[in-house]
Design goal:
Order of helices and strands: HHHH
Largest sheet: none
Number of helices: 4
Shape: elongated
Helix content: over 70%
Radius of gyration: 18 Å
Strand content: under 5%
Structural class: mainly alpha
Number of domains: 1
Number of strands: 0
Protein backbone atom coordinates (compact mmCIF):
# COMPACT_ATOMS: atom_id res chain seq x y z
CA UNK A 1 0.00 0.00 0.00
CA UNK A 2 1.23 3.48 -0.77
CA UNK A 3 2.43 5.59 2.15
CA UNK A 4 0.42 8.61 1.11
CA UNK A 5 -2.79 6.71 0.34
CA UNK A 6 -4.58 8.11 3.40
CA UNK A 7 -3.56 11.64 2.46
CA UNK A 8 -5.19 11.12 -0.91
CA UNK A 9 -8.41 10.14 0.83
CA UNK A 10 -8.10 13.20 3.11
CA UNK A 11 -7.75 15.51 0.07
CA UNK A 12 -10.86 13.96 -1.48
CA UNK A 13 -12.84 14.19 1.77
CA UNK A 14 -11.87 17.83 2.32
CA UNK A 15 -13.01 18.57 -1.24
CA UNK A 16 -16.32 16.80 -0.65
CA UNK A 17 -16.75 18.69 2.63
CA UNK A 18 -16.16 21.99 0.82
CA UNK A 19 -18.75 21.07 -1.80
CA UNK A 20 -21.37 20.19 0.83
CA UNK A 21 -20.71 23.28 2.97
CA UNK A 22 -20.70 25.54 -0.08
CA UNK A 23 -23.97 24.07 -1.29
CA UNK A 24 -25.63 24.33 2.14
CA UNK A 25 -24.61 27.97 2.53
CA UNK A 26 -25.73 28.72 -1.03
CA UNK A 27 -29.26 27.44 -0.43
CA UNK A 28 -29.89 27.67 3.35
CA UNK A 29 -33.69 27.91 3.03
CA UNK A 30 -33.92 24.48 1.40
CA UNK A 31 -32.29 22.76 4.37
CA UNK A 32 -33.84 24.65 7.28
CA UNK A 33 -30.77 26.72 8.09
CA UNK A 34 -32.91 29.85 7.75
CA UNK A 35 -36.64 30.29 8.28
CA UNK A 36 -38.85 31.06 5.34
CA UNK A 37 -40.56 34.03 7.01
CA UNK A 38 -38.23 36.43 5.24
CA UNK A 39 -36.24 37.45 8.30
CA UNK A 40 -32.57 38.20 7.82
CA UNK A 41 -30.44 35.11 7.40
CA UNK A 42 -26.69 35.37 7.89
CA UNK A 43 -26.13 32.75 5.21
CA UNK A 44 -27.75 34.97 2.58
CA UNK A 45 -24.89 37.44 2.83
CA UNK A 46 -22.35 34.62 2.48
CA UNK A 47 -23.82 33.31 -0.79
CA UNK A 48 -21.57 35.30 -3.13
CA UNK A 49 -18.64 35.86 -0.77
CA UNK A 50 -18.14 32.32 0.54
CA UNK A 51 -20.54 29.71 -0.84
CA UNK A 52 -19.90 30.08 -4.58
CA UNK A 53 -16.09 30.29 -4.38
CA UNK A 54 -15.90 27.41 -1.86
CA UNK A 55 -18.16 25.23 -3.97
CA UNK A 56 -16.30 25.97 -7.22
CA UNK A 57 -12.79 25.51 -5.81
CA UNK A 58 -13.79 22.30 -4.04
CA UNK A 59 -15.30 20.88 -7.25
CA UNK A 60 -12.06 21.52 -9.10
CA UNK A 61 -9.94 20.05 -6.29
CA UNK A 62 -12.12 16.94 -6.23
CA UNK A 63 -11.80 16.45 -9.99
CA UNK A 64 -8.01 16.74 -9.79
CA UNK A 65 -7.75 14.50 -6.71
CA UNK A 66 -9.33 11.58 -8.58
CA UNK A 67 -6.18 11.15 -10.66
CA UNK A 68 -3.96 11.09 -7.58
CA UNK A 69 -5.01 7.56 -6.71
CA UNK A 70 -3.10 6.30 -9.76
CA UNK A 71 0.32 7.92 -9.15
CA UNK A 72 3.21 7.02 -6.89
CA UNK A 73 4.14 8.70 -3.59
CA UNK A 74 6.78 11.09 -4.91
CA UNK A 75 4.45 12.48 -7.59
CA UNK A 76 1.68 12.90 -5.01
CA UNK A 77 3.99 14.79 -2.65
CA UNK A 78 5.05 17.15 -5.44
CA UNK A 79 1.42 17.70 -6.40
CA UNK A 80 0.47 18.34 -2.78
CA UNK A 81 3.10 21.09 -2.47
CA UNK A 82 1.83 22.60 -5.72
CA UNK A 83 -1.81 22.33 -4.57
CA UNK A 84 -1.13 24.01 -1.22
CA UNK A 85 0.61 26.92 -2.91
CA UNK A 86 -2.14 27.21 -5.51
CA UNK A 87 -4.82 27.07 -2.81
CA UNK A 88 -3.17 29.93 -0.90
CA UNK A 89 -2.84 32.02 -4.07
CA UNK A 90 -6.46 31.31 -5.02
CA UNK A 91 -7.68 32.20 -1.53
CA UNK A 92 -5.84 35.52 -1.61
CA UNK A 93 -7.16 36.38 -5.08
CA UNK A 94 -10.73 35.47 -4.09
CA UNK A 95 -10.50 37.61 -0.96
CA UNK A 96 -9.22 40.56 -2.99
CA UNK A 97 -11.84 40.23 -5.75
CA UNK A 98 -15.08 42.19 -5.42
CA UNK A 99 -18.39 40.41 -4.89
CA UNK A 100 -19.84 42.10 -7.95
CA UNK A 101 -18.76 44.65 -10.47
CA UNK A 102 -20.43 47.99 -10.68
CA UNK A 103 -20.03 51.55 -11.82
CA UNK A 104 -20.17 52.89 -15.29
CA UNK A 105 -17.45 50.58 -16.66
CA UNK A 106 -18.77 47.36 -15.03
CA UNK A 107 -15.32 45.84 -15.36
CA UNK A 108 -13.24 43.36 -13.40
CA UNK A 109 -13.33 39.78 -12.18
CA UNK A 110 -15.74 38.86 -9.41
CA UNK A 111 -15.17 36.26 -6.70
CA UNK A 112 -17.10 33.75 -8.76
CA UNK A 113 -15.04 34.35 -11.91
CA UNK A 114 -11.77 34.22 -9.98
CA UNK A 115 -12.75 30.88 -8.43
CA UNK A 116 -13.80 29.45 -11.81
CA UNK A 117 -10.65 30.60 -13.63
CA UNK A 118 -8.26 29.61 -10.85
CA UNK A 119 -10.00 26.25 -10.44
CA UNK A 120 -9.89 25.55 -14.15
CA UNK A 121 -6.23 26.47 -14.35
CA UNK A 122 -5.57 24.32 -11.29
CA UNK A 123 -7.08 21.23 -12.90
CA UNK A 124 -5.23 21.80 -16.17
CA UNK A 125 -1.88 22.47 -14.48
CA UNK A 126 -2.37 19.58 -12.06
CA UNK A 127 -3.00 17.13 -14.86
CA UNK A 128 -0.02 18.45 -16.81
CA UNK A 129 2.18 18.11 -13.72
CA UNK A 130 0.92 14.60 -12.93
CA UNK A 131 1.44 13.42 -16.51
CA UNK A 132 4.86 15.10 -16.79
CA UNK A 133 6.08 13.66 -13.49
CA UNK A 134 4.74 10.20 -14.39
CA UNK A 135 6.54 10.23 -17.75
CA UNK A 136 9.72 11.44 -16.05
CA UNK A 137 9.47 8.68 -13.41
CA UNK A 138 9.02 5.96 -16.05
CA UNK A 139 12.13 7.08 -17.93
CA UNK A 140 14.27 6.52 -14.83
Amino acid sequence: MKKTYYWRIVVSLISLFGIVVGYLIFSPYNYGLCNLSGEYCMFSSLKKTLAEPLFMVSMFFLSASFFLFFVNDSIFKKWLCFALGWFLLTTILIILAPVSTGGWMNFGPTKELVSIWMGSLFVILSLIQIIWQSIKARKK
